[in-house]
Amino acid sequence: MKVFYKNKSLQESLTNLKRSASIGFIPTMGALHKGHLSLIKKASTENKIIVVSIFVNPTQFDKKEDLINYPKTLENDLALLRTVNCDIVFAPTVDEIYNGNAIASHFDFDGLEFQMEGKHRKGHFDGVGTIVKRFFEIVKPHKAYFGEKDFQQLQIIKKLVDKHNIPVQIIGCKIFREDDGLAMSSRNVRLTKVQRKEAPFIHKTLKKAKEKFKEYSISEIVKWVENEFEKNDVLNLEYFEISNIKNLKSAKRKSKKAIYRGFIAVFAGNIRLIDNIALN
Ligand code: AMP
User: Fold this and answer.
1) Does domain 186-275 have CATH number 3.30.1300.10?
2) How far is the CA of 26 from the centre of ligand 1 (A)?
3) Model-level pTM greater than 0.90?
4) Class of domain 2-173 (CATH, top level)
5) Using one digit for the tens of pLDDT, what is the confidence trace for 160-208?
6) Residue 113 burial by CB count (10 A; 0-12/13-18/19+): exposed, middle or buried?
């Protein structure tokens, strides 16, 4: 496994490999866990060369405090990556990527960017679009892997490559969970014991919402989820929405042809956790 910190040396190494090998790329912000590793494992069944980036992208954080508190564990991450089939790690500095000007470009994702996470984290998807586009330009992967854990991000990346004609195939990967159902996340290590014990309530509630989906109306299910969280002293609901996966708009009524998912964001103290579930 080779580790690169500079664009130039990474690109030189990739140019030598590129002609003969398919490149699978997994962008991450580090603090790696089994969820990240599941993306890498999937990628290694479909590609010759696996490239993982580790970069905490400042332009996608709407709150400075969240950026400062985001876990940074490079040595651990590299040790973990050595246990799986990872060929190349790209771990640039902020300056290497942004050249002293860490500002996001503006993107039009046909409205996907204004829903859910876009409403609650201003500028978040401009930051995501900026960094992923930049990484695609540097790595030039054949396939790139993104988790359904960040389902809105996955849909936005598909839109990004479509609108900008970027020659990469985007592969969505299933949400990887702890045994108790909590979606794995780099933020989970920041949870207190009490918060960690309570956090599986998020997935449990989503599963119950899924059970209710056939029988109840969307507004009844939303109300029910909101009530469940009102009774919870540890977790504060930021939003629960049922959305059509095509436009990610909050749905009011069910349509037979549409595919819906339930999307949730919850605060445990100041730690923000997100999750989602397929409903039909
Ligand atoms: P992050 O480091 O949080 O930016 O995540 C990097 C990639 O891993 C993104 O595509 C995430 O959606 C994906 N990912 C993070 N957690 C999980 C998980 N529990 N299951 C599946 N994919 C995940």
Assistant:
1) yes
2) 9
3) yes
4) alpha beta
5) 999 999 999 999 999 999 999 999 999 999 999 999 999 999 999 999 9
6) buried
